[in-house]
Amino acid sequence: RSKQSGKGKNSFYKEQYQYEFSRRVEIQNNIKNYLKNDAFRLFYQPVYCVKTHKICGVEALIRWPDVTPFYNPDEFIPIAEESRFINELGNWVISTALKQLAQWQNKYSDTLNMAINISPVQLQSECFVEKLLVEVNKYQINTHNITLEVTETALIEDNLKIADVLNSLSVKGFKIALDDFGMGYSSISHLTTYPINIVKLDKSMQVAESEKSIKIIEGLSLMLKALDFEIIAEGIETQSQHFLCKELNINFMQGFLFSKAIPAENIEQLLIDCCLSQK
Ligand code: C2E
Ligand code: MG
Ligand code: MG
Ligand code: MG
């Protein structure tokens, strides 16, 4: 407990801080360069209808270019948000995903759905709704086939601007999904304050092994159904979790048990095998 160990601790924190700081700067610079060089990639994870086991849509998930050092979205998206690159990155995601959706709808099914993750920073950016509608019209997609996923944390401080934007999006026919429900800040009041159509149960809730967690999911899904929300279970990894989805009449599910997020070419084979009838 001497001064010495205190000093050691201090320099440990200092090194840790410097390390994190330089990592952040490195990621920011790389985001800038990769954006300029159009090097980011978009992968897609299929979303299955629980009842029919057909693919009803996909979720677009951004991927860092295939280079070292490699970063996961959970690390680089928050850094993109701090540095405001998220708007440019998000615009690229939107236009890439919509272009892809238009192609797949023409080839496979008009009702195929695309889910796109939207950062709260994007929602508050200038003319977000208008710019999104320009893209949607460009590819002649029906807004009903587009789900915008917003994480719970975006709604924590009852943000009037975000409520406003979500309302306009909802009026235009976009589906709004509350992502990662049950992870940390779940507040039932978000469900009534915001125009939400779909609730995505976070993967941390899918520990179907424990009896208590099964009861929680059971109670939650009953409540959500009574409130007319559609439910998507995320992170389905085991047969017992899959079974629970069927038992609880959960509408949709996604997870490694069926498929992780994969490149567009690989999704096509799944759509041929498993989508609604091909055109
Ligand atoms: P999210 O939107 O909740 O996406 C689900 C995450 O869980 C994805 O991680 C997905 O690959 C992963 N996942 C799917 N099934 C399973 C499973 O069965 N088990 C496990 N353990 N994980 C599963 P990913 O792609 O690393 O993305 C992490 C988060 O980064 C996303 O969480 C989302 O919040 C954010 N993100 C990803 N792409 C974008 C984007 O284009 N824009 C924005 N703003 N955020 C994005
Ligand atoms: Mg999501
Ligand atoms: Mg999620
Ligand atoms: Mg998440």
From TrEMBL:
It comes from the Bacteria. Signal peptide: none annotated. Residues 24-275 form the EAL domain. This is Diguanylate phosphodiesterase. It comes from Pseudoalteromonas carrageenovora IAM 12662. The lineage of its organism: Bacteria, Pseudomonadati, Pseudomonadota, Gammaproteobacteria, Alteromonadales. The chain holds residues 291 to 569 of 569 of the full protein.
